Amino acid sequence: MDLNPSRCDHLIKTVQAVRPELRKYPHSEIISGVEVKKLSPTPLMSLHRGVPIATPRPPNLVTVWGLRGMIFALVYCTAGIAVFLVHLATIPITGTGINPARSLGATIVYNRNHAWDDHYHVFINAIDLIKAPVFVTYCKLRDN
């Protein structure tokens, strides 16, 4: 739901009207999304012929009441897949991405020589992180 000023004003007035009733119940912040949806439905607030409903679920599950019942969507998995596909599409241009783990997975799938060119620094940095404490410890022992 993108928020523009005209709908924000209407939404704030609706929440202010419902808030005294919601304070009687525990978890009112979870129920308030459902109540606002019931009081002020607009076509822009629905999700492909379904109604987004806030329910007390684990944070990585989003519950949507659709035409055929409850659909559980793993939001983090779909976001990760989308980022993975973006990395897969940009490897020919950039060689690697910001997150080494995601870039490594996309490089393994893409598996071209130029995709591997910029990945050596990821492994060298990991080896340096192991070598640095050993070197510092050696220097301290040598000075004593």
From TrEMBL:
One of its GO terms (molecular function) is channel activity. It is found in: Membrane. It comes from Gossypium aridum. PANTHER family: AQUAPORIN OR AQUAGLYCEROPORIN RELATED. The keyword rRNA-binding does not apply. This is Uncharacterized protein. It holds the Pfam family MIP. The keyword Ligase does not apply. GO terms for cellular component: membrane. Keywords: Membrane, Transmembrane, Transmembrane helix. It is a multi-pass membrane protein. The chain crosses the membrane at residues 65-86.
